[in-house]
Design goal:
Number of strands: 12
Order of helices and strands: HEEEEHEEHHHHEHHEHEHEHHEEHH
Distance between the termini: 25 Å
Helix content: 40-55%
CATH superfamily of one domain: Decaprenyl diphosphate synthase-like
Strand content: 5-15%
Number of helices: 14
CATH class of one domain: Alpha Beta
Structural class: alpha/beta
Largest sheet: 6 strands, parallel
Length: 447
């Protein structure tokens, strides 16, 4: 039901009124680099003032394609282009346009009502199946179990509407007196969830998300473009991923940007990546700081040029006090090298007499590997279709849930990431225990 409401909200944002909104162009697709991609993947969109949008393509060769896509959309607006900047001016609302908008919004509302009715119907059907299979009891089905706030809203609704069906708290959609059908269905399903010890609370969100950003080169090759074009598109995908984590309340995000083995790639590509890396630090750090992101780096940074090392250190210093999101970039990083380095520091302590060999255990070694100051990753994602972890966080991923997608990294968006989170929420994390132990409240285990 929440998804239906979110879909309604998304559709209403796209309705053109007299006020500018970046949501107006969310659905526009641009034919660029040999395929159709969302406008947000080839240009930035900003609100210039109350009645105009400014669209700035990142590549001047796609300006014409963006103009064509705007004209082909149902916006009914003509782009005004100056150089590589496209401006969309929204006319003031006329009375006729207001009437048309009323019809559009009413239609969207009716579609949402139908979707919610269908959800209620399916829920009722599921309740019947659960009753038939004796997975819930009649008492659980009949018991409404509403909290005091629900009762208060229901009483207010009945007080306003008397016996009229349309004024009830459920919006008059259930069509009969007594408890709404969806309330019975919801409570019965919740009872079934309790019987299986599945939380009725919102789906768990991973505290720490780790991602291998794979597919930049193939993305560019599919469009007959140089590999570095794919890496630039991948950098924009990083921004979308950071925004997603901030919106979903994910506390830590670790991205595999450049592995120890990547130094063996062609010198031209490595040099281009270093310039891209340096440029991103120069452009993005202030914005990350404004958003409350703490930026850190893991890996053999001594292999980078001094200028880049200084930028990395400056970014860490600037953002050190931020707490909304811990963003870690793994650059010149390898999981085996990470563990070897941790073991070496412990060996040095033993040689110096600061530690006895029998004192070395998993906790002591874990305290010396990268990311020791963060919770272990809860969810690992790899884009690009490969099914391996490629020497990434070998120690830290011991009990991490793994999720793979064929989506290439530059094409990553909130929809793909939401699918990963939904799959994560459906999994039972046992940490070596059995299901009954994990489901028992006293076990103290959480995801």
């Amino acid at each position: 039901m929440a998804k239906s409401i979110e879909a309604l909200r998304h559709n209403l944002v796209k309705v053109r009124t007299g006020r500018a909104s970046t949501g107006l162009v969310d659905s526009i697709k641009v034919v660029a680099y040999g395929s159709e991609v969302p406008l947000s993947q080839v240009a930035s969109v900003a609100v210039a003032d109350a009645r105009s949008l400014v669209i700035t393509p990142w590549d001047k060769t796609v300006v014409g394609a963006v103009e064509k896509a705007i004209l082909a959309s149902d916006l009914g607006l003509t782009p005004n282009t100056a150089g590589t900047t496209i401006r969309l001016n929204l006319p003031a609302l006329t009375e006729e346009r207001r009437r048309d908008l009323t019809k559009v919004v009413h239609g969207e509302g009716e579609d949402a009502k139908v979707a919610i009715r269908n959800i209620r119907r399916d829920a009722n059907h599921q309740v019947k199946e659960l009753l038939k299979d004796k997975q819930i009891t009649e008492d659980e089905c009949a018991h409404r179990g509403r909290d005091p706030e629900d009762h208060r809203r229901g009483d207010q609704g009945r007080g306003r509407g008397g016996e009229g069906q349309g004024s009830r708290a459920d919006g008059g959609l259930s069509g009969h007196a007594g408890p709404p059908a969806d309330a019975l269905a919801t409570n019965a399903l919740a009872a079934h969830a309790r019987a299986r010890h599945v939380s009725a609370q919102p789906a768990p969100v991973p505290r720490h998300l780790a991602i291998i950003m794979d597919g930049n080169g193939r993305w560019a090759q599919q469009r007959h473009r140089p590999r570095l074009v794919g890496h630039r598109a991948g950098a924009r995908a990083v921004k979308r991923c950071v925004e997603f984590c901030l919106q979903r309340g994910i506390a830590a995000l670790t991205l595999f940007a450049f592995s120890s083995e990547n130094w063996g790639r062609p010198a031209e590509e490595v040099g281009g990546l270093m310039k891209l890396f340096l440029g991103a630090l120069e452009r993005e750090v202030d914005e990350l700081h404004r958003l409350g992101v703490r930026l850190g780096f893991i890996g053999e940074r001594e292999r980078f040029e001094a200028t880049l090392q200084a930028r990395m250190q400056a970014a860490e210093t600037l953002t050190a006090g931020n707490a909304r999101l811990a963003l870690t970039i793994a650059a010149s990083y390898g999981g085996r090298q990470d563990i070897a380095h941790a073991a070496r520091t412990l060996a040095e302590d033993v040689a110096a007499g600061r530690l006895r060999p029998q004192q070395i255990d998993a906790d002591r070694l874990g305290a010396r590997v990268a990311l020791a100051d963060l919770p272990a990753p809860d969810l690992f994602i790899r884009t690009g279709g490969e099914l391996r972890i490629s020497n990434f966080l070998l120690w830290q991923l011991a009990y991490t849930e793994l999720w793979f997608t064929d989506t290439l990294w530059p094409d990553i968006d909130a929809a793909v990431l939401d699918r990963a989170l939904a799959d994560y929420a459906s999994r039972e994390r046992r940490f070596g225990l059995i299901s009954d132990q994990v489901r028992r409240p006293s076990s103290g285990r959480t995801s």
